[in-house]
What does this fold into?
Amino acid sequence: MSGRQNTVTALLSGPDQRGLVAKMSGWIFDHGGNIIHADQHRDMEAEVFFQRIEWTPSGDQSDLEAEISEFRSFASGLDMEVECKLTTHRSRVAVFVSKYDHCFHELFLGQKSGELPCEIVCVISNHKDLEEATEGYGVPFFHIPVSKDTKAVAEQTQLAVLAEHDIELVVMARYMQILSPTFLQQFAKPVINIHHSFLPAFAGGKPYQQAHERGVKLIGATAHYATAILDDGPIIQQDVDRVSHRHTVNDLVVRGRMLERRVLADAVRWHLENRVLVYGRKTVVFD
Amino acid sequence: MSGRQNTVTALLSGPDQRGLVAKMSGWIFDHGGNIIHADQHRDMEAEVFFQRIEWTPSGDQSDLEAEISEFRSFASGLDMEVECKLTTHRSRVAVFVSKYDHCFHELFLGQKSGELPCEIVCVISNHKDLEEATEGYGVPFFHIPVSKDTKAVAEQTQLAVLAEHDIELVVMARYMQILSPTFLQQFAKPVINIHHSFLPAFAGGKPYQQAHERGVKLIGATAHYATAILDDGPIIQQDVDRVSHRHTVNDLVVRGRMLERRVLADAVRWHLENRVLVYGRKTVVFD
Amino acid sequence: MSGRQNTVTALLSGPDQRGLVAKMSGWIFDHGGNIIHADQHRDMEAEVFFQRIEWTPSGDQSDLEAEISEFRSFASGLDMEVECKLTTHRSRVAVFVSKYDHCFHELFLGQKSGELPCEIVCVISNHKDLEEATEGYGVPFFHIPVSKDTKAVAEQTQLAVLAEHDIELVVMARYMQILSPTFLQQFAKPVINIHHSFLPAFAGGKPYQQAHERGVKLIGATAHYATAILDDGPIIQQDVDRVSHRHTVNDLVVRGRMLERRVLADAVRWHLENRVLVYGRKTVVFD
Amino acid sequence: MSGRQNTVTALLSGPDQRGLVAKMSGWIFDHGGNIIHADQHRDMEAEVFFQRIEWTPSGDQSDLEAEISEFRSFASGLDMEVECKLTTHRSRVAVFVSKYDHCFHELFLGQKSGELPCEIVCVISNHKDLEEATEGYGVPFFHIPVSKDTKAVAEQTQLAVLAEHDIELVVMARYMQILSPTFLQQFAKPVINIHHSFLPAFAGGKPYQQAHERGVKLIGATAHYATAILDDGPIIQQDVDRVSHRHTVNDLVVRGRMLERRVLADAVRWHLENRVLVYGRKTVVFD
It folds into this structure.
């Protein structure tokens, strides 16, 4: 939603204090920047302040890193946590898959069309099914099988691949394995998962089967950050589609695929555009 | 969705057999009727057949009851359960309320505008708040307080009112009490409830509070038939509304009201138009 | 979406200049206020800046009018147009109706439940159908018949009623007359209209008939500010509902009513909460 | 929505007569078939009857073509037009494209995953941009440039390709040329187009630009059969997405792509599943 010149986005959060908006915008003004968008939110109960600001830095574009670094110090001095990003930056993404390919293709096509401002650097899978398709996109494919006994070792292999490729974001594109708390802790960077259900309803396996048995009139999909507790991570995006008694379990699966694709694509795009602040079990999405 | 002449609707269900569609339509044809709408569904796994037929009976409208009765015998002979209704029939409805009035007004306005083809015959409440509003609509109000100790007695009083007024349908319009299995069994007629959540997520109390804490991006409402198991009855209609971090719990409550009104109104209208077949824990809605 | 203490909302618009966010928030900070929400937008092509700020003024609540007046001067000095409002203010609203009552009741129920923070001060109609219902709500009803020949005179009578009652907003709740450019110019305050169609499709009369003939799969409703050009005023809110070949024109009308009610209620609520900035043929809605 | 055994679907339409449902289902019953789904509709004003029936033919699957042929004669004898299809049949589809690839990829991925039960036999384009991608899918690509002067000749070349490949359906996947009435008449088979707007609003070019200038709150997409009159063909599917002042024209284009993809995929799937009856300027979609 920005123009095409290079801009900086900052996501800020911290204890609420009087005058934060004035201080942040004052700093940018004093440094010759021009605010393009600014959106903020206060959680009244928790007394936390959240802000996303996007600005064009002053004339001299040669030293943006220094300016960002100075802004970071300024924000830290106000007890704010801050995440800065240049809009020209392309995050390095690893995609985890198993056998389903609908979310996999959605991510590659979104990346190619420019809707997902990232580089997909590698694909990791516990199956070989998508090896050829991955290579067709010109991207390396790592087949790392996972069984109950080998899971801990497999995860170390995955972590090594991620480290080697400087991965900044993992997207689980219907990867049918749970990433262990150890993995998440060691990776220490965001992991986005798509759950093929309207969480918290039907958490866990076979949600379409459960939904069909319950006779629901809407099915849903939820994209969330992965955390140590299964399917309980902060929700980024959700959507639903209307169904009826005429739909078989298989029909729900087919319609669910479209839902999963677009919910995951929204969540990944917002993350890449530095729009998502995590906050306890919740997110603030400045969309 | 029918023209305004008198027509008959039949809802049929029973074990699937070859030729049921032909037999049903054949009977109507042979008796001089003309089918306006017919919709059917087969549950492949359970091998159950469902059908809704609407037809204009033959020229002689004087003896419709006899024709319906004959059709019922015919359907029973084929092992089908059948629910017949003249579209000119106005079901006798009792509305149960507590203090919230948004669903209450929705039902009265829908009845007056003709969208809900029924008569609202009485209002029963455990509080006095809506007495005046009820009388403003020209309908008797029964104040039947309910406490833990008096619940069994209160329910007998409610049942007496329902019996006295020949009630065919109870609508719980945000009635904040649970009707006991005993009540449901003795009433033995349909009871529609509105749950202010997207079931099965957030079943039970304070769903908006729960939804807010979980940071959901959609809130929902569910209308279902009341059964002995709380919030587990067959779902008739569901809908959602999009929310964000900007919404307080109170905002969710306010937006939820509009959602509850329209979801309940849809469910009641479909029921009154003889469009809803209950089937295990599910419904088939011929909408 | 604010807490219940008294806050000020300001809607600002004007030529974009570097540092506007800093200046506005700086003024509030310097005067001891605390910003609760602030949202801004820049139209890149037109180089116009828009902002909605909500803040709790400093401790002394006794002289809020003076503070607002001082803020207005400050904003004007920066070439900004500004619209300020105390959140405790209840705008004085006149409702224009003809015979349809669904939007009429929606407004009264919304006002009574607190969702529409206003006072409905009078109802004006070219028909007598809603006289009794209006008086039931304890509000005066003005029957001002309109014919082709008497329209100019009737409008002067309407304007006199509006002036006498200090009306700040007119809501056309399916009022089946067009307000003349002269009326709009002399009233010189906002008028919100509900159009029972998804504008710009099917502008003008009988949109449901047109939609049915065209076989559309969605019907819509649009709430907009009335302007001298029919159905061309700035759009505040739109929504749709899914329909099929099974729906008659009458079914579209029935479903359309629910759509019209909720679209009009949203638009009026946003207006009353000082969330809508008009801007050429468009609106900026800070929802 | 059917099981995986071979079934027959028939789409029927013709002048309404008493007893049609009985006659159709009677024929199937008498020939040993079992009706899986049957849905019918009557247009009350035009007195036209529409029906979709799906049935499993009798035990002997060896002579299905003969049975279908006999059913066709029977239906014709009742003045019904009939379109029959075996669910195992894979329609031969040609995709027309220009430079945009989002709908193009959607169709190929849908075909590969089985959601679109067809064979994509060839791709025809007035540009070379998608040649490599087409060949990557293993499908022949025909580059047929079109200019104002060469259009008539180019269309003859296109028609020759379609004839040579026995094409049964053309899908215009954002093909940026209008097919002439002559082309449509000579091809004489269905052509589905995706219009990147909520028809009839913003018919013609640059609808997102128009929508942005008008400040609409919803954007839409419409899939319809192509007819001699531009953007006026019978509508198969429509959907919308919510937008705000924060979205640039480019944002609308990006969001519109997802909308176009899913609206086109729905329309093509319903067509392939023999669910769409054209009827004057409208469709009856038995979904």
